[in-house]
Amino acid sequence: MRAVTYSETGHSSVLRLVDRDRPEPGEGEVRVRLVRAGVNPTDWKFRANGMNGPYDEVAPGQDGAGVIDAVGPGVAGFAEGDRVWVLLAQSGRWLGTAAEHTVQPVERVVHLPVGASYDLGASLGVPAVTAHRALTAGEDVTRLSPGAMSGMTVLVAGGAGAVGNAAIQLARWAGATVLTTISSDEKAALAVAAGAHQSVNYRVGDPVEAIRTLCPEGVDLVVEVALAQNLALDVEVLRNRGTIAYYADNGGSEATVPVRGTFAKNLRLQGLLLYTLGADLLEAATLDVNAAVSNGALRVGDDAGVPLHHFPLEDLAGAHDAVEQGAVGKVLVDVSEE
């Protein structure tokens, strides 16, 4: 099978197109013939920083979608020919989704709902599951469904990013009022296409005043991508017993906590990372994400505020570079024919 791998970390130039034996599934595993793979910031960061475990060779990629073409012993609920999406494919393994086939434990494989495209399936894992955990990290909501967040207001920082976009779509589906901070009119248009009710350009005027004007009683939850930069703002605009759910260290690796401001409002700061979420939270997320997909509430493409950028497998380096350079929308790799 064709795969793109690296045996040393560093710049995207370390990626090589190679031919490897097609893997066979073991106990509790299935083999997926990948059609599409999604590229996320975690992929190039793993490649650049060497966070890959004890492997001499790594085929990167956590997200993908395709068709099961082999089933290992002890597998129930999946069969050859099933359309699926995968998540955390390269976590603790050498073979991710930058290959024509990947073998995965069934816990990392999810049925792709009827009518959902492989483009959408490959876009779900990291962004949608991260967004789900962020939206359920407070004390009010543990699962997402239509009406689960009715009466709540969610502020999504960086609403034009992949996780931000998924958070907007999922929160809107669950009945929340969704505000988002953005840095340009172009990104505001993308966030509104995703379903945001209002956007605030944090580079124009006073964003705290703008958010307070839109939500005088305070927002219930902040989905935060840049805690170091935005913590003071978040504390100002949150209601009593609100939550900041943060999933990245954009803008700085350390944040200064306004101690009195956080305890006076009984605020909760909830960090989250997919790799350590645990099986219970991952299962809840995949169930709710699939329900949203089936209801047409999670989408990709220009009309959903998620422009798609396709790269062939042999140009995985270009796909990694595009994500690292901040491509707006979703970067996908065309692995094989549908």
Count every beta strand, where a strand is a DSSP E run of 2 or more residues.
15
CATH class of the largest domain: Alpha Beta
Label the CATH architecture of the largest domain: Alpha-Beta Complex
Number of helices: 10
Do you know the CATH topology of the largest domain?
Quinone Oxidoreductase, Chain A, domain 1
Helix content: 25-40%
SS class: alpha/beta
Radius of gyration, whole Å: 20 Å
The ordered H/E elements are EEEHEEEEHHEHEHEHEHEHEHEHE
Give the CA-based shape: globular
Mean model confidence by pLDDT: 96
How many structural domains does the protein architecture include?
Answer: 2
The rounded distance between the terminal residues' Cα atoms is 16 Å
For the largest beta-sheet, the strand count, sense and barrel status come to: 7 strands, mixed
Strand residues, percent? 15-25%
CATH superfamily of the largest domain: Medium-chain alcohol dehydrogenases, catalytic domain
In the predicted model, the low-confidence regions spanning at least 5 consecutive residues are none
Organism: Nocardioides lianchengensis
Pfam family, one: ADH_zinc_N
Keywords: NADP
Protein name: NADPH2:quinone reductase
